């Protein structure tokens, strides 16, 4: 079979394999992998029948000749690997967070622009059908501009990632902790809906998760939008039994609510009227990633821009770093006297 795209997946941990499975499911791409561990490389290559299974990036560029790559390696390696690929003329979808520092981020942006490449960051919540429907509705401003955005989310992280103690999550230096691993998704989604975060205050702590010391609970308040005229609030914990993501977006003449666990979004603009409710069939855990794969291939074909561009991902990285700085400064909360 002849494919228009040759997609290289770099890193075959759980998220790399998910990207591999979902890009393969599009039927639009020849798939290859880059994985340093021989046994893992062999296992994944056999499971998915990839065209090439390479041990390092140089071999992968030479043998697989990728037209695009998904960088799903540990977060500290994202930008160095992306630079190598961009300099070879490869389109890029980079896992979140874009990095853990700003080092070489502007250089990557410049190379992508100079080479005319498509590049994005894999903030998959922009492809959730509820989020996408509500964002599209709000973008047309039927209720006027957004005034306030509130996100409340939590889940039992050990249930979904039982090995959390032994992977990157256990150390901020490898991209771990609730801020860089989980809250970053919500911050990025909130910026898509209500504009870039300009100022923030934050508090975070380790409340419950056993076997780690990184934060598992975060509260952030924001001023966002181009004019900093939207007030925001984001809260997340990683130990409650219920897996839920709830949004409330209050506008000048109405409100939109998103309840992911109930598979619905709602709108209301009349105090005397009932909510207008929009429901969707329950999505599976690959739904967002399959939509993201299709969307990014469309972007490479210049049918539409990526929903989360490289510049968008860099903006959210700056927000991540600001949250960490606010928490670590010890000045995020004022004493009540």
The end-to-end span amounts to: 72 Å
Q: Helicity level, as a percent range?
A: 25-40%
**What strand order characterises the main sheet?**
8-9-10-7-11-12-13-14
Level-2 CATH architecture of the largest domain: 2-Layer Sandwich
Largest sheet: 8 strands, mixed
Please give the CATH class of the largest domain. Answer: Alpha Beta
CATH topology tier name of the largest domain: Dihydrodipicolinate Reductase, domain 2
Pairing-aware structural class of the strands and helices? alpha/beta
Low-confidence stretches: none
Number of strands: 14
Oligomer: single chain
* Structural domains: how many: 2
Return Rg in Å.
20 Å
Structural commentary:
The chain is 35% helix and 25% strand. With 337 residues, the chain is α/β, with parallel strands linked by helices. A hairpin with a 5-residue loop joins strand 9 and strand 10. The longest helix is centred in the last third of the chain and has 20 residues, at 310-329. The chain starts with a strand and ends in an 8-residue tail after the last helix.
């Amino acid at each position: 079979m002849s494919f228009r795209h040759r997609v290289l997946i770099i890193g075959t941990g759980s998220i790399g394999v998910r990207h591999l499975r979902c890009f393969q499911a599009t039927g639009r791409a020849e798939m290859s992998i880059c994985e340093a561990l021989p046994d893992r490389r062999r296992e994944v290559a056999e499971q998915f029948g990839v065209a090439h299974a390479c041990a390092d990036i140089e071999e992968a560029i030479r043998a697989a000749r990728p037209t695009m790559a998904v960088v799903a390696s540990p977060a500290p390696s994202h930008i160095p690997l992306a630079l190598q690929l961009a300099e070879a003329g490869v389109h890029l979808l980079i896992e979140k967070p874009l990095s853990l520092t700003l080092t070489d981020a502007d250089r990557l942006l410049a190379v992508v622009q100079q080479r005319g490449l498509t590049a994005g960051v894999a903030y998959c919540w922009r492809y959730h059908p509820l989020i996408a429907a509500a964002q599209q509705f709000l973008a047309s401003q039927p209720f006027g501009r957004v005034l306030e955005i509130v996100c409340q989310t939590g889940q039992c992280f050990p249930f979904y990632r039982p090995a959390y103690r032994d992977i990157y999550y256990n150390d901020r230096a490898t991209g771990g902790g609730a801020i860089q691993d989980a809250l970053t998704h919500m911050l990025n989604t909130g910026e898509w809906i209500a504009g870039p975060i300009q100022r923030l205050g934050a508090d975070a702590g380790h409340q419950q998760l056993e076997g780690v010391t990184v934060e598992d609970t975060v509260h952030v308040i924001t001023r966002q939008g181009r004019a900093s005229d939207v007030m925001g609030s984001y809260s997340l914990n990683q130990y409650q039994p219920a897996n839920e993501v709830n949004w409330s977006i209050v506008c000048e003449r109405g409100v939109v609510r998103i309840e992911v666990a109930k598979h619905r979004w709602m709108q209301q603009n009349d105090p005397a009227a009932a909510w207008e409710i929009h429901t969707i069939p329950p999505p599976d855990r690959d739904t967002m990633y399959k939509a993201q794969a299709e969307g990014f291939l469309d972007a490479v074909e210049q049918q539409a821009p990526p929903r989360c561009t490289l510049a968008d991902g860099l903006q959210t990285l700056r927000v991540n770093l600001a949250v960490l700085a606010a928490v670590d400064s010890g000045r995020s909360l004022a004493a009540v006297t």
